[in-house]
Write a structure and sequence with these properties.
alpha/beta, 5 strands, 24% helix
Length: 292
């Protein structure tokens, strides 16, 4: 049916409503909405929802210029330049060397968690009746590639059930509390990188040295005679102060007197001899400064 007849029939059967009938509930059904099809061509995303793809090497029409943002000529346009490249001459790292960003006094400790120690004990790879030292840990492959020592950490301390007597280079406060709560003990003692290798090979006592007074069940001092090389003691102030501290369970803590701190620099308050300063009056000073 042509569109003109449709409009005529609709106007005959459905005349235009008056103002008082605009609120009729059937009004939306009698006059369906008509929308232009051009709205589909006007759909777009929110501004900034996506970015235009950068097309390089497509000439000035790409928006990046004819050189694609690389500039004109030269090595930086044609390829990549490595860091520190000086055009072929000797690099600065070779001429002057690399300096800085290296702490000469830092130590590299091998971490050892309590859950791993308990797992080795459950597997029968460590004997809880004997002291657990660096030698036992290295032979049982509990730790490997030890450089400056072993530090005991408290990860998995809730799994620790055996009373262990551990001798390590360092230990955290929570690890010490967990081992002692299980009925064991922790002793921290000094090892040099060379002494660690001798301890693993069985050439040095892993526990005792000249200044040590370590008392551990199963770690008697009588076995020291079979070792050809003795275990060294610390010589630097930083190491001495660490192993003199009872909070670290250091093996040199027996050197401290009652009320004395582990520091070698700061004196304990109230300890030492007090020297009274001599005060002179201004008249005496003036008389001493006279020439005649």
């Amino acid at each position: 049916m042509p569109p003109n007849f449709q409009k005529a029939i609709r106007a005959h059967w459905f005349p235009a409503p008056s103002i008082n009938r605009l609120c009729s509930p059937f009004l939306p059904f009698l006059y369906p909405q008509q929308r232009s099809a051009s709205i589909l061509s006007a759909l777009s995303d929110n501004p900034g929802a996506y970015h235009k793809k950068i097309r390089r090497g497509r000439g000035p029409s790409s928006g990046k210029g004819k050189t694609s943002g690389r500039g004109h000529k030269g090595q930086k346009q044609h390829g990549k330049v490595p860091r520190g490249f000086n055009g072929g001459q000797t690099p600065d790292e070779v001429v002057h060397g690399i300096r800085g960003f290296e702490n000469q006094f830092s130590v590299e400790m091998k971490p050892l968690n309590l859950e791993k120690v308990q797992s080795w004990v459950d597997q029968g790879r460590l004997n809880p009746a004997r002291p657990i030292t660096i030698r036992e840990l290295a032979i049982s492959r509990c730790v490997s590639q030890v450089k400056d020592g072993v530090k005991l950490l408290a990860k998995g301390s809730e799994k620790l059930t055996s009373p262990l007597h551990i001798v390590a280079s360092r230990a955290s406060a929570s690890a010490i509390a967990a081992v002692e709560a299980a009925g064991g003990s922790v002793t921290t003692r000094y090892y040099s990188p060379q002494s660690i290798q001798r301890v693993i090979k069985g050439k040095t006592d892993p526990i005792h040295s000249l200044q040590s007074q370590i008392v551990i069940p199963g770690g008697e001092r009588g076995e020291q005679k079979q070792y050809p090389i003795r275990l060294p003691d610390p010589t630097s102030r930083k190491d001495i102060e660490y192993y003199r501290d009872p909070a670290h369970r250091g093996y040199l803590s027996h050197h401290l007197e009652e009320g004395q701190g582990p520091s070698l620099f700061f004196k304990t308050p109230g300890v030492g001899r007090l020297v009274a300063r001599k005060t002179r009056s201004k008249a005496t000073s003036a008389a001493e400064n006279r020439i005649w």
